[in-house]
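F.,

This is the one I mentioned.
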């Protein structure tokens, strides 16, 4: 499960690098204008704003990569933090891959699907790591044959 979660996080990081390139370097080109449905005049007028947005997408990608490289509890925390940032940006702004949910009052909520999946997978990864650590500590406690052995068991070892 951890490998799948990390592949999804890496894919989201690559998506944000792609968006960085579109917004920072290709905004006024035919490729950038076609990707965002822009008229040439508007693309020229908004190029500085788009470059700034692209820079922020690069920061999101860098944070996700940091989480992947760091590993452990620091990596997990970085992945969750930056995935939540991506999710909030996706919900607030134009969702790149929107998922529409119809609520009870017939209103429609748009959520950024890949980010929701990635956050969910990161949480599942964390819960699985906690369970594995719990099972390891439980095994050590059950195997202890004396008070000295019980006292030597580190109850916090292995938890992310």
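My design for it:
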């Amino acid at each position: 499960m951890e490998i799948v979660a990390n592949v999804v996080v890496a894919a989201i990081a690559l998506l944000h690098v792609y968006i960085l390139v579109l917004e920072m370097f290709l905004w006024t080109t035919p490729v950038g204008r076609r990707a965002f449905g822009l008229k040439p005049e508007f693309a020229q007028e908004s190029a500085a704003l788009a470059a700034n947005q692209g820079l922020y997408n690069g920061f999101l990608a860098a944070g996700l990569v940091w989480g992947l490289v760091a590993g452990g509890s620091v990596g997990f925390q970085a992945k969750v933090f930056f995935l939540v940032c991506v999710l909030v940006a996706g919900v607030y702004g134009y969702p790149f891959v929107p998922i529409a949910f119809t609520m009870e009052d017939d209103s429609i909520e748009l959520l950024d699907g890949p980010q929701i999946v990635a956050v969910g997978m990161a949480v599942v990864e964390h819960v699985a790591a906690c369970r594995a650590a719990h099972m390891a500590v439980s095994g050590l406690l059950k195997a202890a044959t004396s008070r000295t052995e019980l006292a030597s068991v580190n109850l916090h070892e292995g938890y992310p």
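The beta strands are 98-102, 108-112.

Talk soon.
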